[in-house]
């Protein structure tokens, strides 16, 4: 974040339609993709802002990303207003994009970097790790509400900014290519992991197979549903879903599965001691309850049935990605030691194994929670 001087950052911030004059710009947050700065201005009632440099190496079409964000935030705001959300709550329920003084959603600098600005949401916080069932339930409710409010926005208007991001067939193709090349002579070290992956390839195509049969509708999904992308208030009530760069057309099972992947695991994503990888079932049930509280009204039966497929698929897919990177020489993910990607892959495959062992229990929880709403209906 030190590529730009305070003077340069203040000049960039001043290109946006903000209240007051910029008095301070400082690094903010711990994101790994975009560079984020907090902007303070002077004057009575002046707001605080977030200035971001969008990583155009990850997001090749930043214009499409910004069009998605503008469409989604405008629609969310309209839906909240239609549900008579009080004005003070509305401001903290949806991100507010600040246009440039030229009325654009982004500003390019002389080095072809893309910059954007949001209002900084005060009195909110996020957690990297879910600590309580209350937090898990609020996370589920937030992402369920996000999907529900976007049901009536034309999915055809939303760009696929990361093509094939959750396409397991394409991910496996990349793995098979890495195996064939064996650029770092590492394939012999991962025979067990490759056998595990191969044995489940057909099962993991389940969502794509249902989609190909026309049995799953394409929705507007978030595609990065880790818990720290939900802002909560001081009472741990969900306020706002953030980090909308990855909003794309997709299937609800992907969002559900990715959230559960990060919530249900009692250990770290890269845990070396595989015996520590166990499932926190109460957190799964709490997230599921919160999710259905919002999503039950629009989900089709086939979508409900696909949710556990997503729960199994997302850690499997993440393992495939880690293993592919390991075989290719660790170019994509940052590593802290030579076998870090292999360690990550092993941990994710162990999580898949645990999920498979508890699949009947997870299915029963989903059926029980959804059943509450079917009885009411």
Secondary structure topology:
Elements: H1 6-13, E1 22-27, E2 35-41, E3 49-54, H2 62-82, H3 87-93, E4 107-108, E5 114-119, H4 133-149, H5 168-181, H6 191-199, H7 201-204, H8 206-212, E6 219-221, E7 230-232, E8 238-241, E9 248-250, H9 252-263, H10 281-295, H11 301-328, H12 340-357, H13 359-376
Antiparallel strand pairs: 1-2, 2-3, 3-5, 4-5, 6-9, 7-8
Helix pairs in contact: 4-9, 4-10, 5-11, 9-11, 10-13, 11-12, 11-13
Describe the structure in your own words.
- By secondary structure, the protein is of the alpha+beta class.
- The protein folds into two domains: 114 residues, Phosphorylase Kinase, domain 1; 244 residues, Aminoglycoside phosphotransferase (APH), C-terminal lobe (Aminoglycoside 3'-phosphotransferase, Chain: A, domain 2, Alpha-Beta Complex).
- Helices cover 47% and strands 11% of the residues.
- The strands form three sheets. It has a five-stranded antiparallel sheet with strand order 1-2-3-5-4, covered by helices on one side.
- The termini are far apart.
- The model has no long low-confidence stretch (mean pLDDT 94).
């Amino acid at each position: 974040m030190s590529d730009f001087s305070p003077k340069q950052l203040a000049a960039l911030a001043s290109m946006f339609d903000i209240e007051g004059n910029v008095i301070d710009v400082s690094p903010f947050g711990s994101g790994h993709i975009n560079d984020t700065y907090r902007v303070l201005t002077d004057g009575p009632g002046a707001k605080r802002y977030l200035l971001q440099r969008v990583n155009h190496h990850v997001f090749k079409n930043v214009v499409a990303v910004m069009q998605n964000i503008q469409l989604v935030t405008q629609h969310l705001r309209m839906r909240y207003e239609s549900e008579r959300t009080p004005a003070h709550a509305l401001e903290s329920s949806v991100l507010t994009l600040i246009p440039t003084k030229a009325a654009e959603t982004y500003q390019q600098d002389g080095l072809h970097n893309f910059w954007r600005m949001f209002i900084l949401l005060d009195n909110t916080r996020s957690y990297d790790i879910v600590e309580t069932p209350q937090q898990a339930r609020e996370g589920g409710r937030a992402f369920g509400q996000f999907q529900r409010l976007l049901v009536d926005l034309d999915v055809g208007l939303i760009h696929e900014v990361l093509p094939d991001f959750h396409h397991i067939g394409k991910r496996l193709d990349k793995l098979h290519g890495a195996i064939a090349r064996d650029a770092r002579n590492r394939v012999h070290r991962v025979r067990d992991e490759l056998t595990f992956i191969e044995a489940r390839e057909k099962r993991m195509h389940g969502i794509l197979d249902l989609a190909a049969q026309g049995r799953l509708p394409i929705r507007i999904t978030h595609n990065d549903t880790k818990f720290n992308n939900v802002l909560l208030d001081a009472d741990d009530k969900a306020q706002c879903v953030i980090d909308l760069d990855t909003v794309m057309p997709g299937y609800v099972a992907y969002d559900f599965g990715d959230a559960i992947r990060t919530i249900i695991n009692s250990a770290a994503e890269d845990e070396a001691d595989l015996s520590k990888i166990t499932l926190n079932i109460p957190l799964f049930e709490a997230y599921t309850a919160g999710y259905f509280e919002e999503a039950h009204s629009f989900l089709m039966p086939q979508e409900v049935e696909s949710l556990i497929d997503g729960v199994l698929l997302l850690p499997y897919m993440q393992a495939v990605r880690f293993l592919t990177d390991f075989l290719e020489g660790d170019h994509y993910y940052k590593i802290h030691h030579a076998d870090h990607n292999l360690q990550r892959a092993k941990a994710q495959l162990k999580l898949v194994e645990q999920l498979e062992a508890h699949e009947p229990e997870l299915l029963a929880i989903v059926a029980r929670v959804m059943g509450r709403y079917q009885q009411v209906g």
